[in-house]
Design brief:
- It is a single chain.
- By secondary structure, the protein is an alpha/beta fold.
- The protein folds into 2 domains: about 10-175 and about 295-380, Aminopeptidase; about 180-290, 2-Layer Sandwich (Alpha-Beta Plaits), CATH 3.30.70.360.
- Helices cover about 30% and strands about 25% of the residues.
- It has 9 helices and 16 strands.
- The protein has helices spanning about 10-20, 30-40, 100-115, 135-140, 205-210, 260-275, 300-310, 330-335, 365-380; strands at about 45-50, 55-60, 65-70, 120-130, 155-160, 170, 175, 180-185, 190, 225-235, 245, 245-255, 285-290, 295, 315-320, 340-345.
- The strands form 4 sheets. The protein has an 8-stranded mixed sheet. Strands 10-12-8-13 form a 4-stranded antiparallel sheet, with helices on one face.
- A hairpin with a 3-residue loop joins strand 1 and strand 2.
- Helix 1 (about 10-20) runs antiparallel to helix 3, helix 3 (about 100-115) packs across helix 9 and helix 7 packs across helix 9 (about 365-380).
- The protein is elongated, with a radius of gyration of 23 Å.
- It comes from Spirosoma oryzae.
- Pfam families: M20_dimer (PF07687), Peptidase_M20 (PF01546).
- One of its GO terms (molecular function) is metal ion binding.
- Keywords: Hydrolase, Manganese, Metal-binding.
- Its cofactor is Mn(2+).
């Protein structure tokens, strides 16, 4: 079996992934497509990991550095509106964050590692599932197959619409926000709507809670206390107009610069709930979902990113504030020295998660070169 000869096989591979997107945790066909193509590129080993992910190894040296490069592979529950020839064939699902492009970049990097092997150490290419739900990185890190890896450096990128095409965007310290969603349930007691005093209706406590969360916000990113609280969803009672409600929920998404600030914000929200429900007869329970640790770029790894961008003569932009969205690669940078950087997708590109977004295929080659330069810096 030979790698098909195309004018650009990596662009066509990306477009093939785009045709058949899969949601977080369901990337079985995506996993097989990646496995089929990397098998042609002579890896030292290929392992299933994190459920529907793949870990591809190059180099066999026990001595020398260990570098991990990650790409995410999942799609989003968004209906494709573009009319490109490779438009999504799965109704209501499409690659609107560019993970198809990130995957193609890593396949291109695999081709480079096959053509010019590293001299020492090992390189692992991680095709990670379930980034959009914040569960994929955790699944990989908890997989027994990952335990022996212990990388010295971890790197990842994300394409960034709104920045000049091909520019490398990075900063030391926090690069993406700490994000999690908070679900608060309010349990009271139903009563007749004519006699609401006979029950405990959580409506007013819920309303006060949502309104007063605004006082806990600091929406300006220039401050270390940056905190953004976004109401996402609420429900209360039933459409039964003779019944005073006895149960409701409020769902919020929280964003901060750091994991420490997130912990402080959660404590403030719990204190507010205690204050509002004291003596009300309303019982409150909280749970959390879709958690993303802040990406903390190691200073030395950041310096490597900047050095490689300059060596390749790629435009480099050091931003002063972190991006406001979450990225579960933060779990890797919390545990291992490394960095995430951005790759400008073009100033006129539609934004991520918009229905008319599409990955810029011109980024595949320079992104692979950037990753290869980072590898060669340590593995020469």
């Amino acid at each position: 079996m030979k790698l098909p000869v195309y004018p650009d096989p990596f662009v066509l591979f990306r477009q093939d992934l785009h045709r058949f997107p899969e949601l977080s945790g369901q990337e079985t066909q995506t996993q097989q497509r990646i496995r089929d193509v990397v098998a042609l590129l002579n890896p030292a080993d290929v392992l299933s990991i994190g459920g529907t992910g793949l870990l591809v190894q190059y180099g066999n040296g026990d001595a020398g550095p260990v570098t991990l490069i990650r790409a995410d592979i999942d799609a989003l529950p968004i209906q494709e509106v573009n009319t490109v020839a490779y438009r999504s064939q799965h109704a209501g699902i499409s690659h609107k964050c560019g993970h198809d492009g990130h995957t193609a970049i890593l396949v291109r990097l695999a081709a480079s590692l096959n053509a010019t092997p590293i001299v020492k150490g090992r390189v692992y290419l991680l095709f990670q599932p379930a980034e959009e739900t914040g569960k994929g990185a955790e699944a990989v890190l908890h997989d027994p197959a990952f335990a022996p890896i212990q990388p010295n450096r971890v790197f990842a990128l994300h394409n960034l619409p709104g920045f000049p095409e091909g520019a490398i965007i990075c900063k030391p310290g926090p690069f993406t926000a700490s994000v999690q969603s908070m679900i608060v349930s309010f349990t009271g007691q139903v009563a007749h709507a004519a006699e609401p005093e006979q029950g405990y209706n959580p409506a007013y406590v819920m309303s006060a809670f949502v309104t007063q969360t605004r006082s806990l916000q600091q929406p300006d990113l220039q401050y270390d206390t940056f905190s953004l609280i976004t109401p996402i969803y609420t429900t209360l009672g039933e459409q039964s107009y003779g019944v005073s409600a006895g149960y409701g929920e409020v769902h919020l998404t929280l964003r901060t610069k750091s994991t420490q600030r997130m912990s402080e914000l959660v404590n403030q929200l719990h204190a507010l709930l205690d204050q509002l429900t004291a003596g009300s007869g309303i019982r409150v329970e909280t749970r959390y979902t879709d958690a993303f640790a802040a990406n903390e770029n190691d200073p030395a790894a950041f310096a490597q990113v900047r050095q490689c961008a300059q060596t390749l003569d790629f435009p480099f932009q050091e931003v002063s504030e972190p991006l406001r969205w979450g990225e579960d690669f933060g779990l890797f940078t919390q545990r291992f020295p490394g960095a995430m950087f951005g790759l400008g997708a073009g100033e006129d590109s539609p934004a991520l998660h918009q229905a008319d977004y599409d990955f810029n295929d011109r980024l595949i080659e320079p992104a692979a070169r950037m990753f290869r330069a980072l590898i060669d810096l340590d593995h020469a």
